[in-house]
Specification:
It is a single chain. The protein has 189 residues and is mainly alpha-helical. The chain has one domain (2-180). The protein is built from 7 helices and 2 strands. The protein has helices spanning 2-12, 30-40, 55-63, 77-89, 95-106, 114-143, 151-180; strands at residues 28-29, 74-75. Strands 1-2 form a two-stranded antiparallel ribbon. Helix 1 (2-12) packs antiparallel against helix 6. The longest helix has 30 residues, at 114-143. It starts with a helix and ends in a 9-residue tail after the last helix.
Length: 189
């Protein structure tokens, strides 16, 4: 059973993160943005029919001030990076929490180097993936004791443990947002 679970985990982690150099340096029109995102983020789709990003979503993100408006209907590299952040965050957080979390990047008087922040995000993503496998192995060993659990009980316990962990991590992220990002003016004085 453990090998099967670890193989599933490898499938989950089998994605190629969008490297900074892969993000176009030229501004893109909306259709180009949705095509780029769909192509680059398809590994995160649960089913083939899932949608990564639509024009309506992007317009809503702009309307909700999660994304700076396009210039002459074209989206910059910084816009694309923000959309990648939003894509990952929307899997767990509400639009309001995403807005609070990203506000410091949009509401600043100094030039925010979003590309440098994105590179750090990529390193963190890799580290999280590596930690996930290590933690999963420990959870599987814990669930294997006692040895009289049925296979279904083990799958159930692992699913519950993953959900409990995800819930705690989500709540911690919300606490960070509430404590350090919500209703805070991030402009330099």
């Amino acid at each position: 059973m453990n090998n099967e679970i670890l193989e599933l985990a490898k499938q989950v982690l089998n994605y190629s993160a969008i490297q900074n150099h892969e993000i176009p340096d030229i501004d893109l029109y909306m259709d180009q943005v949705t095509s780029f995102m769909d192509n680059k983020l398809k590994a995160f789709k649960r089913t083939e029919g899932d949608i990564v990003l639509t024009k309506t979503m992007i317009n809503n993100y702009t309307k909700n001030k999660l994304l700076t408006p396009p210039v002459k209907k074209k989206y910059s590299k910084d816009n694309l990076i923000m959309l990648i952040f939003i894509y990952h965050l929307k899997q767990t957080l509400s639009i309001g929490d995403i807005g609070d979390l990203l506000s410091f990047m949009l509401n600043t008087d100094e030039n925010m180097d979003i590309e440098k922040l994105y590179d750090k995000f990529l390193r963190l993503q890799k580290s999280s993936s590596d930690s996930f496998i290590k933690d999963l192995k420990e959870k599987l060993n814990f669930i294997d004791e006692p040895k009289n659990n049925t296979e279904n009980e083990k799958f159930f316990l692992l699913a519950i443990d993953l959900i409990l962990s995800a819930n705690m991590q989500k709540r911690m992220a919300e606490k960070l947002i509430d404590s350090y990002f919500k209703n805070v003016d991030h402009k330099k004085k």
